[in-house]
Amino acid sequence: MYKRMFDIDTRMIIWREATISGEGTPMNIRTMYLAVVLLITAGLSSCDKPEQPQSRKVTYADDVEPIIQKHCAECHVTGQQGARASGLLMDSYESLMKGTPFGQVINPGSAMSSSLYILISGKDKLTITMPHGKKPLSDEEIETIRDWIENGAVEN
Fold this sequence. Notes:
The protein has 6 helices and 2 strands.
């Protein structure tokens, strides 16, 4: 009887047939290769994958705008100190997304590269935190803004 076998050379795979006594039909090496690949694939797919934390879906109009009205809009509207100092208006979604003359304050999809989130969360231990000179946002409010930015900073 014959069984297909292979030897691995550093330059190529050499196929040969070997006689095996006591066995029936020659085994197809491709079938054996496929079985091994399927076993490996099944083993890998059953591995526990760490779950990514799911951020909740939030929108500007429903979730973020009330926070901004409560903590930010007093200073960041036309004619007020926050708007004069930074150029950031927070009286609408459009003005918030426009940012300042120095650039955007929201980077949709990345809270950690959005200066608004960095300023309200205190993540970078900056000398300026927002809201300036007032009670900071609650952890829940900061998390809401983070989730909104991470989910693309959608309006509605």
